[in-house]
Write a structure and sequence with these properties.
645 residues; DNA Primase, Chain A; 6-stranded mixed beta sheet; single chain; 5 domains; alpha+beta; 5-stranded antiparallel beta sheet; flat
Length: 645
């Protein structure tokens, strides 16, 4: 039976794995104030950043889709791993040797599935790289050399060669302790027609494909022998638990930092184009792996950018496509235009007039020519219009009419009205229409027709506007506690702040929070959260961090509203500046305690008023004494609250 990872090792993994560093490999994070960071959530499609990361507490939470947890949970979700596999993944990165226990003794647990598959690919990449130096690999070396890539460049990009033997790699990895099932699952080997296990790749030049974190997860293999029985020019690793071609971009592991820094991504068509671009100084180049560039690839790139709004993203970020100047290139451009709105960026194209790709251009013109190609990019819309219009004979009435009929609907698809005006003028210029307003009028007519034809949307059943996540606009994203009848919204907000303080700053407010009685909170979900904090040992016993939040969550029903709120409240900034958080938290707890005492005073006064002054003289005296004590307590709490502001 597999052993369990020791708790102290799991704690060390959490401590040494900075959550902002791990999440920052997938999402660009920027300062959000209050010690928090924000970015585009990788778990759902969104236009504005709703992911909040708290490095000091080791937690993240998305106020759009509700995803959240600690660094281990993030790796589980982003890599689709089990808890143990995520811990092993982080331990490997941090250089931590994990220890396993099974009732105090027993065999060590084997590495998780993902770790095993990545290890197999890492060994395979090294094996293939060694094989590239073999005599049989001369055609592969010639292929690279003819394109300007010497041995040093081949090593830099990890290029390799799959030997002619049918089971060379398979035997090598079996000898390193991997099972036939693991090699098949990894896509490194497959079953032959005779039932034996053979290598997936044979006599091909290989490129290791890495995920955004730098782990080898697959290979791209190019045909270099004329007698290769498989005619396809490129073969790629099949879909596996770690190789998802719709989510992978070749070169992203080395390009991600520059993409985030420059707010620009260059999308090329092949592995050699990526190599040529990076060698030429275009360090933001990436390419899809065995599939067309699609919507999920867009999301991979967009997460590296963090903007406050769609307008800011449109102004600051750019995606540059390099297409072949042929029919296939035009088809790719049309697809990119169809996906343009998903980018929320300036979408441009860079096409060499003679149709050369970046690799060919570097061979003929050197590094400068590649850089000049990328720097000379043009808006995708302009390229599309120019290409469409050039298909027609503009010297004839029929040709000009046909060009307008093709170009005007394309301009009408643009979302930005200002862009529609500008490109209507471009169409008029390219076609030779004397009055650009005539073109603009036709564009606006198409837009109005489309708007009338669309069904009314964006309304929830109650008739209120909702955002892209199905939440009422203006919501923080954390489920808001419903206000009980008679409870002022400010009281609801104050209770919320106190719960946040207990989760985020238990070392500061723990004792005061634990002293709050069961009647301190009026909102039902806040009462549940207070009870869970008590059941978890009380705030005074807590240590700031994800384990404290996890302990509280464990004392709430799995599908309850309260449990769904915990992570968000643990990450959501307190309504104060960073420097004043401690004083603000103390003030809020003392203020809530003062409100509790005020309610007790009101109840006691009501009882006194109902007493008969003569018949209940003794009871009245006792209650007056209690009132004096409560009033004194109330003044002390108010003083603390004011002093803590």
């Amino acid at each position: 039976m597999a052993g369990r990872i020791r708790d102290e090792d799991i704690a060390e993994v959490r401590e040494k794995s900075r959550i902002d560093d791990i999440i920052g490999e997938h999402v660009q994070l920027r300062n959000a104030g209050g010690g928090n960071l924000k970015g585009i959530c990788p778990f759902h499609d969104e236009k504005s950043p709703s992911l909040s990361v708290s490095p000091t507490r080791g937690l993240y939470h998305c106020f759009g889709c509700g995803a959240g947890g600690d660094v281990i949970k993030f790796v589980q979700e982003i890599e689709h791993l089990s808890f143990s596999e995520a811990v092993e993944n982080l331990a490997s990165r941090a250089g931590i040797q994990l220890r396993y226990a099974e009732g105090g003794s027993g065999p060590q647990r084997q590495s998780g599935q993902r770790a095993r598959l990545v290890e197999a690919h890492t060994l395979a990449a090294a094996y293939y790289a060694d094989q590239l130096q073999s005599p049989d690999a001369q055609p592969a070396r010639d292929f690279l050399g003819e394109r300007g890539f010497d041995a040093g460049v081949a090593r830099q990009f990890g290029c390799g060669y799959a030997p002619a033997g049918w089971d060379s790699l398979t035997k090598y990895l079996l000898g390193r302790g991997f099972s036939t099932a693991e090699l098949t699952l990894a896509g490194l080997a497959r079953e032959s027609g005779r039932g034996s296990l053979i290598d997936r790749f044979h006599r091909r030049l290989l490129w290791p494909i890495k995920d955004i974190g730098g782990d080898v997860v697959g290979f791209g293999a190019r045909r270099i022998h004329d007698d290769d029985k498989i005619e396809a020019k490129y073969l790629n690793t099949p879909e596996t638990p770690i190789y998802k071609k719709s989510q992978l971009l070749y070169g992203m592991d080395v390009a991600k930092r520059e993409i985030a820094k420059q707010n620009t991504a260059v999308v090329v068509e092949g592995y050699t184009d990526v190599m040529a671009c990076h060698l030429a100084g275009v360090t933001t180049a990436v390419a899809s792996c065995g599939t067309a560039f699609g919507a999920e690839h867009i999301n991979v790139i967009r997460r590296l950018w963090s903007s406050n709004s769609a307008e800011e993203a449109q102004a600051k970020t750019k995606v540059i496509f390099t297409f072949d100047g042929d029919a296939a290139g035009m088809k790719a451009a049309e697809k990119a235009f169809a996906d343009e709105q998903k980018f929320l960026a300036q979408t441009c194209v860079a096409i060499e007039p003679t149709g050369k790709d970046p690799c060919e251009l570097r061979q003929s013109g050197g590094d400068h020519a590649v850089r000049a190609l990328i720097e000379g990019n043009k808006p995708l819309v302009f390229y599309m219009l120019d290409t469409l219009i050039k298909r027609f004979d503009l010297d004839t009435v029929e040709g000009r009419a046909g060009a307008l009929n093709q170009a005007i609907p394309l301009v009408a698809q643009l979302k930005d009205p200002a862009h529609r005006v500008g490109y209507a003028g471009e169409v008029a210029r390219l076609v030779g229409v004397p009055n650009p307003d005539d073109v603009l009028a036709r564009v606006r007519g198409l837009v109005r027709s489309a708007e009338r034809g669309q069904q009314r949307g964006g309304q929830d059943r109650a008739g209120g506007p909702v955002n892209g996540h199905g939440r009422q606009n203006g919501s923080s994203g954390v489920p808001a506690a419903a206000s009980p009848v008679g409870v002022h919204p400010k009281v609801v907000q104050a209770e919320r702040e106190v719960i946040k303080a207990a989760l985020q700053l238990p070392d500061t407010v723990g004792t005061q929070f634990d002293e709050l009685g069961p009647g301190a909170f009026l909102v039902a979900v806040h009462q549940q959260l207070q009870g869970a904090i008590r059941a978890a040992g009380g705030a005074a016993s807590a240590v700031i961090g994800p384990l404290w939040v996890q302990r509280v969550s464990e004392h709430l029903p799995p599908d309850s509203e309260a449990r769904s709120m915990v992570n968000g409240l643990a990450v959501e900034s307190l309504r104060s500046g960073t420097d004043a958080q401690t004083r603000y938290a103390e003030a809020m707890v003392n203020s809530l305690a003062e409100q509790v005492v005020a309610r007790e005073v009101a109840q006691l006064k009501s009882r006194v008023q109902r007493l008969d002054a003569q018949a209940d003289a003794d009871e009245q005296g006792r209650l007056f004494a209690q009132l004096m004590q409560l009033e004194q307590r109330r003044r002390e709490l108010r003083s603390r609250a004011i002093g803590g502001e």
